[in-house]
Amino acid sequence: MSRILVVDDDPDILAALVANLEARGHTVVAAADGEEALEAATDAVPDLVVLDLGLPGMDGVEVIHRLRGWYTGPILVLSARDREADKVEALDAGADDFVTKPFGMAELLARVRASLRRGAPADESAVITTPDFVIDLVGRRVERDGAEVHLTRTEWGIIEELARHRGRLVGRTQLLQAVWGPAYSKESHYLRVYMTGLRRKLEPEPSSPRYLLTEPGLGYRFAVGD
Fold first, then answer.
1. Phi and psi (nearest 5°) for 12?
2. pTM
């Protein structure tokens, strides 16, 4: 199951996309304009963005430019603009694929699957090894210096979510909802407290973290190779 951000100002198209993607097991976040899309992307950090270009206010190309300042996942553009120049502009801005409206839902879903495959992390190993500790996602355990590190259920939930998205930004809202549930999506202070505890247990220098990094105003990132 993937988290997909769908952005379109046409309510009928937006509703159809949400319904079809959710029917296939995806978690879908919907937005109707560029500002809303950027805010939703920051909160949810989707695995894929499906974006209309003809948005009110901020144009879709500008949304792509702003997303590419930090977002590394795939962006699939939907647009009634069918000129080659429009496609080139969107792709040069950072889009990964372009589908012209009107489109068939079967083709779009196939493009979504292809985009998600391309955007999936190359390393799908269930065991993540760093120079300082090892995470076993199947065994649900962390070892440091050959000994198991005792983690609380909440600490494990955080490290598991970060490890499964290793190398990628995980938004505060996404992390809170994954570990505590939807009712806790605004309780950012929980994350600060538990991240401090995790760093004490795992980081060689907790005050200068090497692995569990804070992205100010956005969320956290598990930097395996840094």
1. -70, -45
2. 0.63
